[in-house]
Amino acid sequence: MSTTFPTITTRIVLAWSIGILSAALAYAQDRFDGEPIRYTHSKPDNPVSRLQDAINQDRETLQYDSQFGYLRSILAKLDIPVESQMLVFSKTSFQSDLISPETPRAIYFNDDVYIGAVQNGSVIEVSVADPNLGAVFYTLSQNKTDTPVFVRKGHECLQCHASNFTRDYPGHIVRSVYPDADGFPIVRAGSYVTTHESPFEERWGGWYVTGTHGDARHMGNVIATKTEHSAELDSESGANQTTLPAHVRADGYLTAHSDIVALMVLEHQVHMHNLITRADFETRLALRDEAVMDEALHRDTETLSESAQHRIASVCDKLVDYMLFVDEPELDDPIQGTSGGAVLVASIGPGGRPGRALRGLVRGAGRVCGAVSYLIYSEQFDGLPDTAKDYIYQRLWDILTAKIDTADYLHLTNYTSRAIREILLDTKPNLPAYWHSH
């Protein structure tokens, strides 16, 4: 194994990249640190901040163990399934000096919270989808203490998590890279931001993937080789692996898996959270600008201008299309995990009538999330401004009742559209009245 420090060239490129990201962050923060969002100065209200309040008031405690520190207890308190575990060996975390192909970073998540843990790491990394602030970041020290504290992080996280990776909003990231033998991304080869829209062959570079997926190929489980201008990797050797490599000591993790089902749910969910944040922020900014112009021009405040309507429609249309999996690539073969990752999928969203839930509307062998996103039930979705939710519900209704009839929605059969409507009517409170009148 070669040295774990980057080459001089890599250091220069990384320093240059950080400089660019910092400049971009300064520009982005001008938008989300001012009114009406005030990201840095607003008090978060999310599952992590509420757990901290409970700890401070002696209503909750975190248990510490000698091997995993507070990890097990955090997962239990936040209701995060161990089966969600995924392992990433690329050095794409601020604790990168402890990450390698032999000691990957573990990621766990539920519908709202993401937890990152590194072997012998000084802190546990936490990000959460906050209904008012988008992605909010914390660390929790792995030193045993009577009163553990989730420390909110700012610039050190936002320089990547509010960059072009996240469209300049505070967001979560799933990246696919070409990792070298130490786990460093091969910069010259580029990287991919992964969502459920990504081509399968561009997913999971730098991640371990346990599970089967037929003839499709991905970038996971393998080390890349540098070429003169890019990099190459042998995707065949990483395909359909059902166990972790022998050089990864499974006893250093809560499970011996990096489940493909969990990975597919994660890549959908992360971008969905980011699109909700974008719709939230842009709607609030549009309404703020509208109020300023109304006052300056003495305009009627009851009707939104065409400009404001366009701004809100633009971000909400993208959110609705993503919710409906419009650009998800078709997979021919079944996806089968190894850790009971189906537990994660089965926990998604509330149930409706017996045997009826959004998670049951999986279309095609390679689908794991369904025909409409379960995050419609999330606290972050419910926190959207009423103006945005009104538009989204109308758009969904028009698509599901074929009032909008384009090639984008051909995957929604009459049966599926009707089933989505019926399940949401059973399970989603506060739908507009017109949803109940048909």
Task: Describe the structure in your own words.
The chain is of the alpha+beta class and 438 residues long. The chain folds into two domains: 8-260, no CATH class; 271-436, no CATH class. The chain is built from eleven helices and twelve strands. The strands form four sheets. It has a six-stranded antiparallel sheet, sandwiched between helices. The protein has a two-stranded antiparallel sheet with strand order 7-8. A hairpin with a 4-residue loop joins strand 10 and strand 11. The radius of gyration is 22 Å and the shape is globular. 42% of the residues are buried.
Q: Low-confidence segments, ≥5 residues, pLDDT <50?
A: 1-25
Mean pLDDT: 87
Supply the number of structural domains.
2
- Share of residues in strands: 5-15%
Helical residues, percent: 25-40%
Q: What is the count of β-strands?
A: 12
Strand order of the largest sheet: 1-2-3-4-5-6
Give a quick account of the main beta sheet: strands, pairing sense, barrel closure. 6 strands, antiparallel
Total helical elements = 11
Q: Could you state the order of secondary-structure elements as H and E?
A: HHHEEEEEEHEEEEEHHEHHHHH
Shape: globular
Broad structural category:
alpha+beta
Radius of gyration over C-alpha positions, nearest whole angstrom = 22 Å
